[in-house]
Amino acid sequence: MNHLAIDNLTFAYTPKRPTLKDVTLKIPVDSWTLLYGASGSGKSTLMRLLAGLLPKYGGRILQENIELPNGLTVAMMFQDPGMQFALDTPQHELEFALENLQLPANEMPARIEHALKFCGIEHLRDRQLATMSGGEQQRAALAVLVAMDTDILLLDEPFASIDNHNRTLLIQQLTLLQQKYHKTIIVADHDLHGYRGLAKQVIRFENQRAELLDAAASDALLKSADQLAATVHHVKLPTASDQPILTLKNLTIEHGDQKLILANDFSFFKNQTTLLTGATGTGKSSLFKAITHLAAYQGTIVYNGQDSQKIKPRRYAQQVGYVFQHAVDQFLSVTVKEELALSLKKGRNPYFDEEHLTAALKLLGLSELQERVVYSLSGGQQKKLQLLLMLMMGQPVLLLDEPFSGLDLHSLHNVVDLIKASQKVYPQTMIIISHQLEGLEKLIDRHVKLADCQLSYREEF
C-alpha cells in the first residue's frame, strides 16, 4: 500500500456534534499533503487520530477505518510545541527521544548534530526550552522529529510563531527532507503561502467533512495565497501630537551574555494599535515580559509618566495586560463557560454587556462550545477565547503575543472586527507581536521593527 487510507471516519469529542463525519481520504506516501480550513474544522483532530493520540486522550471514534502502510512510523509536532517537551533543553530532548527509540549510543551524536543543524538551532542546544521564543520552540520540536527519522511527519501549524524568512528556510529544508529521504509530510496550516509547487494535494476541511481539491483549484488557491503574502501595507510614522503611554529609557534586556534590546529613549503611544515585528528569537516576547515585570531588565520603563517599578504590582497589572503566546497559559478555569464568568466578574470593558458578549461568541464560533473543557478546544478556538477574555478584562494597555497564530483568514477578520468594535466604545493601547500580517491592515496604526537590538518605527509592513 502506497498511501494512508481513511475510510468513513467519524469522530466526536462530545456525543452531540461530531468534529469529523464520514471522512474518506487517500493520502499518498513520499509526498507533501496540505490541510487547511477554519479553526476547529478538524485538521488537528485528524492528525491526532493518525498519530494514535485519539481517542486514547479524549473523544471517541464512532466509526472508522484508518490504515497505515506496514512498517511506517509516525510522529507529530503539536501546534503548541511546549506541550510535548519532557526535559529542559533541546540537547536533552533529543537524547531522550533517541533513547526511547533504543538507538545505539554511538550513533546518537551524529543524529543529534544533523537535526540541530537541519533546523538551524545548533546555538540553542543547551538553552532552557522555557526561555525560548515560540518560534525557537517550534524549531526545537521539529529537530526532535528529524532526529527520530520518522517516515510520516504530522506538522500542526509548524510555522505559526516563525518569521517569514525562517519559515521559507524551514519549508526548503522540509522539501529536502521529503525529496531526498522520501518522507511523507502532512502539514496543517492556516497560512498557505510558500506551498505552491510543493504540496502534491490540498485537502479542505469544512462542515465536518474533508474534501480533496483538484489540481486546478489547489494551484489557484496557493497562487492567491502567495500574492496576498506579498502585499505591502503602509502606515504612518508617529507625530508630535501622539501621547506616549509607555517609554523605554536606557533600557537593556539580555539573555545570558546576549544583548537582546537596547533602547535609550523609545515610546509607544496612547490608544494606538502598534504592530511589533522582528526575526524569531530577537527579543520581542522578552520585551513584553520586561514591560509586565515578568523578566529582569536594566533601565526604566515609564508608564503614563511614572516609573512602572514605583507602581504597586496589583495596580500595574490592572493597567497593563499581557496576552500570552500560548493560550492555555492564560486559562484559570475548566470550561469555556467558567472562563467567561470569571472575566465577566473581573472585567472592566463596558463594551461587553450581555448583548455584545452574545454577539461576540457567535462571531468567534464559540457559542456552542460553552460546556467544552478549554483544553479540548482546537488551537484556533483557544486563541479566540483567550483574546475575548482579555478584551473583557479591559486593561488600558494590552500586550498581545502572537494572538493570531493558528487562525484562518476568516477567523482573523472576525477577531479584527471584534477588536475594532470594542475599541470604538473603550479605546485601548495595543502592542501586537505577529508574524501573521495578512488581514491586519484595518487594525494597525503603527509598525515597530526590532532588529540588531534596536526598535524603530517603519512606514510599511
Report on the structure:
The chain is 32% helix and 26% strand. The chain has helices at 43-50, 90-100, 108-118, 134-148, 164-181, 215-229, 284-291, 313-319, 336-346, 354-363, 379-393, 409-425, and strands spanning 3-12, 20-28, 32-37, 60-63, 66-67, 74-77, 152-156, 184-188, 199-206, 209-212, 244-255, 258-269, 273-278, 298-303, 306-307, 320-323, 397-401, 429-433, 446-451, 454-458. The strands form four sheets. Strands 6-7-8-3-9-10 form a six-stranded mixed sheet, with helices on both faces.
Here the CATH topology of the largest domain equals Rossmann fold
- Low-confidence segments, given as residue ranges, are none
Q: Gyration radius, to the nearest Å? A: 22 Å
Label the CATH architecture of the largest domain: 3-Layer(aba) Sandwich
| Helix fraction bin | 25-40%
Helix count equals: 12
Oligomer description? single chain
**Assigned CATH class of the largest domain:** Alpha Beta
For the sheet with most strands, the description reads: 6 strands, mixed
- Please identify the structural class as seen in this structure: alpha/beta
CATH superfamily of the largest domain: P-loop containing nucleotide triphosphate hydrolases
Outline: globular
Total strand segments: 20
- N→C terminal distance: 47 Å
Largest sheet strand order:
6-7-8-3-9-10
What do the pLDDT scores average to?
A: 93
The share of residues in extended strands comes to: 25-35%
What is the domain tally?
Answer: 2
